[in-house]
């Protein structure tokens, strides 16, 4: 835990400098399961004893980064490119710290996975933007992506669009790569770990995370159906399903009411984008694709 739940991310920050939230990792896992994707390794919240459970595991150079804050809470900082200094420490309440833990993926000797760069990745520069952001031919950008493997497969491009919808719902701009198990080939699902940069601003919807959806005008049928159900059936409202699901986590109030409300609003926005496609590009069979991907709701 680096950021208190109620602290919103400022607008004056590039996404690469946003701080990860343990609550985002936890909520993302629950959301992914509720959407029926089942592509985020299980993540749970818990309290850690910083002195008994974290300190002994660290190398000496990082143990040296432990100290007591002026009000006697235990603090430390790690080693990384951004915000890894005493001014940006992680502090517990006393010596107890909230955090999230993820199920560890099988060893790569057993089940190797590889990364696929996200064609709609954002630029890491403060001065330039990516081609998909600046193109005056957004449909053409998608067509270009779909010419090259693995995105020449329907399954692969629909996975990217599912992932974009997922990232839009959590508000994550930092999906630079997707991961797949090598032995499943190119036509497999995408593992979505690294979900800490979501749920930063409950009153903002970052529409361009949906660029793959509205530039390609494609959505997987099962995903569309799930979103319609969430929008129309009060019992399946996403905020309701999420509140129920998150109540099973060991930590309290993973998402504040404003974040839960944001989820319902964003479901509607995704459907509005699909509606726009249906109005401008016609033929629903070429927009809502039934690729035989069947899932059981988590
Ligand atoms: N559940 C997991 N099981 C095994 N390995 C994992 C798991 N989650 C993440 N990893 C490994 O740890 C690496 C870093 O994790 P993660 O991507 O969440 O952190 P990050 O600091 O945001 O990385 P990046 O700079 O690539 O965005 C991953 O690239 C992956 O190799
Ligand atoms: Mn990351």
Automatic annotation (TrEMBL):
<keyword id="KW-0547">Nucleotide-binding</keyword>
<keyword id="KW-0479">Metal-binding</keyword>
<keyword id="KW-0464">Manganese</keyword>
<keyword id="KW-0325">Glycoprotein</keyword>
<feature type="binding site">
    <location>
        <position position="20"/>
    </location>
    <ligand>
        <name>Mn(2+)</name>
    </ligand>
</feature>
<comment type="similarity">
    <text>Belongs to the FAM20 family.</text>
</comment>
<dbReference type="GO" id="GO:0016773">
    <property type="term" value="F:phosphotransferase activity, alcohol group as acceptor"/>
</dbReference>
<dbReference type="GO" id="GO:0046872">
    <property type="term" value="F:metal ion binding"/>
</dbReference>
<keyword id="KW-1015">Disulfide bond</keyword>
<dbReference type="Pfam" id="PF06702">
    <property type="entry name" value="Fam20C"/>
</dbReference>
<dbReference type="GO" id="GO:0005524">
    <property type="term" value="F:ATP binding"/>
</dbReference>
<feature type="binding site">
    <location>
        <begin position="102"/>
        <end position="105"/>
    </location>
    <ligand>
        <name>ATP</name>
    </ligand>
</feature>
<keyword id="KW-0067">ATP-binding</keyword>
<feature type="active site">
    <location>
        <position position="174"/>
    </location>
</feature>
<feature type="binding site">
    <location>
        <position position="20"/>
    </location>
    <ligand>
        <name>ATP</name>
    </ligand>
</feature>
<protein>
    <recommendedName>
        <fullName>FAM20 C-terminal domain-containing protein</fullName>
    </recommendedName>
</protein>
<dbReference type="GO" id="GO:0005794">
    <property type="term" value="C:Golgi apparatus"/>
</dbReference>
<feature type="binding site">
    <location>
        <position position="194"/>
    </location>
    <ligand>
        <name>Mn(2+)</name>
    </ligand>
</feature>
<keyword id="KW-0333">Golgi apparatus</keyword>
<dbReference type="InterPro" id="IPR009581">
    <property type="entry name" value="FAM20_C"/>
</dbReference>
<feature type="domain" description="FAM20 C-terminal">
    <location>
        <begin position="66"/>
        <end position="285"/>
    </location>
</feature>
<dbReference type="InterPro" id="IPR024869">
    <property type="entry name" value="FAM20"/>
</dbReference>
<feature type="binding site">
    <location>
        <position position="194"/>
    </location>
    <ligand>
        <name>ATP</name>
    </ligand>
</feature>
């Amino acid at each position: 835990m680096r950021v208190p739940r109620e602290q919103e991310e400022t607008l004056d920050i590039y996404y690469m400098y946003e701080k990860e939230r343990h609550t985002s990792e936890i909520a993302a896992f629950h959301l992914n399961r509720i959407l029926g994707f089942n592509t985020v390794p299980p993540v749970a919240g818990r309290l850690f004893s910083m002195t008994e459970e974290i300190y002994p595991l660290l190398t000496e150079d990082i143990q040296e980064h432990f100290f007591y804050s002026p009000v006697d809470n235990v603090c430390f900082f790690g080693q990384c490119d951004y915000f890894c200094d005493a001014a940006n420490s992680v502090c517990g309440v006393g010596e107890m710290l909230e955090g999230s833990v993820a199920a560890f993926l099988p060893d790569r000797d057993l089940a190797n996975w590889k990364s696929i760069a996200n064609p709609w990745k954002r630029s890491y520069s403060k001065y330039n933007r990516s081609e998909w952001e600046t193109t005056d031919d957004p449909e053409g950008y998608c067509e270009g992506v779909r010419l090259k493997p693995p995105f020449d497969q329907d399954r692969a491009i629909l996975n990217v669009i599912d992932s974009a919808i997922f990232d839009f719902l959590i508000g994550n701009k930092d999906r630079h790569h997707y991961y797949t198990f090598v032995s499943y080939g190119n036509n497999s699902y995408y593992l979505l770990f690294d979900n800490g940069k979501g749920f930063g601003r409950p009153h903002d919807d970052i529409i361009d995370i949906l660029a793959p959806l509205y530039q390609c005008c494609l959505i997987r049928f099962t995903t569309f159906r799930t979103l319609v159900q969430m929008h129309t059936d009060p019992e399946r409202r996403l905020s309701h399903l999420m509140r129920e699901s998150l109540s099973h986590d060991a930590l309290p109030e993973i998402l504040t009411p404003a974040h839960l409300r944001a989820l319902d609003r964003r479901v509607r926005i995704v459907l509005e984008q699909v509606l726009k496609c249906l109005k401008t590009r016609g033929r629903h069979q070429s927009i809502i694709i039934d690729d035989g991907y069947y899932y059981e709701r988590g």
